[in-house]
Structure formats: C-alpha cells, structure tokens
Amino acid sequence: MVGLSGGVDSAVSAHLLQRAGHEVIGLFMKNWEGDDNDAYCSANADFVDAAAVADVLGIEIEFVNFAAEYRERVFAEFLREYQAGRTPNPDVLCNAEIKFKAFLDHAMRLGADAIATGHYARVRQRDGRFELLKGLDPLKDQSYFLHRLNQAQLSRTRFPVGELPKTEVRRIAAEIGLPNAQKKDSTGICFIGERPFREFLNRYLQHEPGPIRDERGRTLGRHVGLSFYTLGQRQGLGIGGMKERGAARGGNAHEPWYVAGKDLECNVLRVVQGHEHAALQSRALVADDASWVAGAPPVPGSYAAKTRYRQADAACALQRVDGGLRLDFDAPQWAVTPGQSAVLYDGEVCLGGGVIAHAEAWGAAAPSKSH
Question: pTM above the 0.85 mark?
C-alpha cells in the first residue's frame, strides 16, 4: 500500500513497485479539517492529482481520513510546544504518529505486506536488524524527519525513490506520462499546507505582546507574542533599521538583528546583532525524549549530528544522559533551537535522536565526561 500524496515522489514510488512485480494499492490520507475552503488547504486538489496518478498506473486508490488522529497525536503536541516557547518540528512527529503508525496500522488491517512512501531515505537489513539510511540524493535526503521510526515500522516500510536523484524521479514521471511530473514540491506544515504561519498560529495560541531587548537591556521594539519567534530568526522583527546613534559604518552596529533567546518569565524577546554573534553559537546540547532506530542507544563516542534539516553533518561526541543524550560539537553550531530535533548519524546510517531541551554557549566550560 503506497501513500499517494498527489506529489511526484509517491507517484513514482508506486510505479517502481509495480515494475518490480508487486501488487500495489494507493492510499490518500486526509489529515486536516476545519478550513477545507481555505486558499492554503490543498487536500482536495492533491486528492484529484493522486486519483489521476492511480488512473494512469491502473491501481485502486483509497481515501482515508486521519484528521482526528492528526489533531490528537501531532497538532496538540505542536501547539503545546509553541506555547512553552519551543519550536517543534511537526514533520518528525507526523511521520512517527501518522504516516508510519496510523497509516501502517490501517494497511496491516487490510492485509498489506508493507507500506511505501515517497521519502528520500533507504532501509537496509543487516545482522537481523533494520537500518535507516540517508537517501542517495544529498539535496533531498529526508532521514532527519524519519529518525523516530523503530524496527517494527522499518521492517514493513519501503522507500522506492531513496536510491534515486530527484532529477531521475521527474524524468521517470514524464516518461510514463504521469500528470504531476512537473508538480512543485510541497512545503509548509505537514498536512496543513503553505499558509501565513503567524496568522495560522494566531488562531490557536494565547499570546501576550512584550518588549524586544538587546544584550545591554535596551528596548528596541515590541514582539507580538514569544510563541511566534524562533532562535536565529531575522525576518519579521520590525527592528531592521535599529543601530547605535553615530555608529561607524562597517561595524557590528549596522549588522542585522537575530533572535537569541526568550525570557518566558518576563515575556522578553532577546536579540543580538550579527549572524556570528557568540550568543547564537553553541558548543553542546542536551536532548530528551530520545528515540533510537535500533531500539537501544548507540555506545558513547564520536558521531555526526544535524540540529536542523538541510544542515551539513557536524562532528560531535555523544554522551548518554537520563532519558536522552548530550552532544559536544567539534565546531560551533548556529542557533541550536529547543524543540527541534538533534539527529545522530554514523556515516550514512541514521541512528535516531532526541528533542533539543537546551544548548550551551560556545564559550561555556565543558563539563567533565563521566559517561
């Protein structure tokens, strides 16, 4: 059973499985309700595209509504994290709870042997265990979003396009006449779509405006609510032209402002000037709610990690802490953000990771390594 989203990646996945001799059924998941007539909600158009793909491939397609599961398992947690001043990654939770849990359970009830999606990742079986590998196209690799998958999920999951570059996926789609061969990739919140983010959150979050202050305590402006900002944010602060009176050109005083922290107790948004400011650089992080693909944490030692999607792998040392992990990096990491995922790699193998709880400034003294 292939999760047909209406996009080209899942469509080509279904074709590749057909070509390999599998009996394929498509499934379209509707996971958001409440504003289906909204200009940003593309579910109806996506289903039309998915149905057109199924027609070209000559396969059945089933429409399933997981909106209740999505709201309970993903969206409620998404809002809780934002309200707590953190910046969650809904795609990570959506994959673990919907695409590879609700969808997988549904497919198994219908008697499917496995599910498949259009993710750019790979699964390898080695020594009786299943490994999650990066997709071969480094520009499209999505293993970061899949790091919470477990052995049971991976054993029944296929990623047919994980072995291909995106250019080849589009070429195949055009070659076999798929109607969505040139459809642009979707962005935005998982299943909610491409909509003005602050306006969308404003419907669901309590918010209280407060001061924006620099490291010297000066008030530079007003924020609209701490939940609407994330570490490293440059746009939308409303203080782009602020600088010290009489400051010489070429100095730090003329550099852009960035969000460097949130003081929830005092409702203050902290900002600094300059992309390379020390307050935006971290030497280590602690993450909780750890999830390991192998079912157990890797041994402490040297690995690589990503603290955000599309980031280059960063060399680090892993230590285990209660319920989570600590990563000490060889080089400064920029804008390490609580609520985002820290994902650990051993070469091309994605080992798992955790949710970033806090980071340590680059200049902070390193603790003794007792684990």
Answer: yes
